[in-house]
Each structure stands twice: as C-alpha cells, then as structure tokens.
Amino acid sequence: MIKLRKLGNTDLSVSEIGLGCWQLGGLTTINDISITYGDVNEKTAQKIISRALELGVNTFDTADSYSLGNSERRLGMALSERRSEVHIFTKGAAVPSYNKQSPFDIDLSYHHLLAAIDRSLTRLGTEYVDLYQAHAAPKSESDFANLEKAFSQIKADGKALYCGVSIGSEYQKGIELIKRGIVDSIQLYFSLLDFEPIMELLPLAKKNGVGIIVAEPLAQGFLTGKYNTESSFPKTDIRSRYSTDEIKTKVKRSQQFAFLTNESRTMNQIALAYVLTRDEVSICIPGAKSVEQLESNVKSSEISINIEEIGSIQKIQQNW
After folding, report:
1. Judging by beta carbons within 10 Å of its beta carbon (0-12, 13-18, 19+), is residue 110 exposed, middle or buried?
2. What is the pTM (predicted TM-score) of this model?
3. Mean predicted confidence (pLDDT) in 11-17
C-alpha cells in the first residue's frame, strides 16, 4: 500500500505517489501544437483512475488547461462516487492563445482566477477542491498581490481548502512565494535530471511548513528507460517540441543512472524512489498512459535507495 505524507502544514494526508492527470484528457491541439502526451481515450482514462484508487492513490492533480478542461471532466466523472475519499488538486491561469511559441498565455489576475476556479468546479462536479493552484509563477508585484487576494477569497468562499502555485523550474520564484507567506504548497519540477531544488527551495519549504508537490518526477518520461538517442516523438506528443540535440542530452544523462536498476527495480521506480528520499517532498505526481505504467510507478513506494547510491547519484549530477 502507498504510504501517506502530510502536505506541509495542511490537514491533508496525501498518498506519496499521486496521479498526474495531464494525459488523461486525450489528444488536444491548439494552433496545430499538441498540448498533451498522445491520445488516451476515455475508457482507458477511467481504467487508470479506478486502478489508482484500488492501489491506494488518494490524490489526483489536474488543470483547466489539460486537454482544455477534458481532463477535469473525466476525473470528476470517475471520482463522483468517491469524492469524500480523495483529494483533488487543480490549476488555473493558462489561457489558450494564438501564439506560435506557446499555445497559452498566463493570466494571474484576481477576477480570472476566481472565474477559473468556478469553471473547474463545474467540470469536476464538486463544490470544492482540496488544493487550487496558479498554473505559473508570478512575474510582477501585481501578480503577487493578485495571487494573495485571490487565494484568500477562494478559501473564504470554501471553493478550495488550500492554495498554492505551480512554478515548474522557476525555483527562485518559489523561494519568494514561500518567504512572502502566500502559499500552502509549491508544485515544481524535481527529478534525477532536475535537482536544483535541493540546494535552497526544499529546505526552505520544510522550515516554513509549505508542502512540496513534485511534477515531472520522470522528466517527461526520459527517466523510464524507454528511450534512446535515436528516439523521436509524433506530432501528437508535446515532447515533439524538443530538438534532436535536446532529446540526446536528456537520454544520455538518464542512461547514467542505469547502474541503479536490477531485476527488482526498474528505471522509473528508481527515479520516483529518489524523489521520495527527500522528506521535504509531500507527494510526487507521475502521469500514466496505461494501467501497467501506473502499477509500475506505485511500486516505487516500496523501494528504498541507500546512502551509497545517493552519493553516486550526487557525483553524476555534480559532473553536469
């Protein structure tokens, strides 16, 4: 069974492995740019969510931008009879836009966030979410002020129990959010390939009781051991944006950790177990496009990495 951890100083006990639901909304494009991982149909999405519940996953992370709301719709339908048993996290602020570089603009304004959570609650079929997150780090003083004001109102209205910000790799902004006391949680990229949060952000979060949600713990699948330097991605996959050189770099770095695998633990399980060695981490939220991937990820909760292996990992990372 998956172990539970507290989400910072909140009252939420979350499964240390949750389910990232980006892929569960199915194939969606904006301006001919894919905004998800391939095409997961509704039947498969429901099977993944049902199996996650059976395995002890109690926390599901989605967003209004995932397949333009379809991830929220599918998740809400699958959890409708289990709502009191689970924690639902969602995000808002990413607005579809005609932009050749990115299919989204970011709107962290007070009124947009209040309207966005209402739309999310309707799609999810629930009166509240356990955690509502801004889907980007603030860029300006007005952004910080709007976040603080919106979060206070959302919690006062009972539409979210807690609020946080998904910062991706903007770690300095995460540090600033924690120091300003605006957030209950921070969602960020942290993995064997993205380890910068160890330096300052994770210890600061622990000191201030801010929960840490790890997104992309498998580095968008590059830490699954499935890809090689010749791998490419179809246009329906968001990773098709990576150049050949970027793919080769990610694969080569991932392959340096292959020595940690054996008959009883796979590369993806090592990657998740590494993230969970940090007690600052409340939960990691790998995605899964099949029940088999989900089951393999969940087994990571039973895997441990020893001190010597951590030392070897750090030497590799330091060489980069």
Report:
1. middle
2. 0.94
3. 98
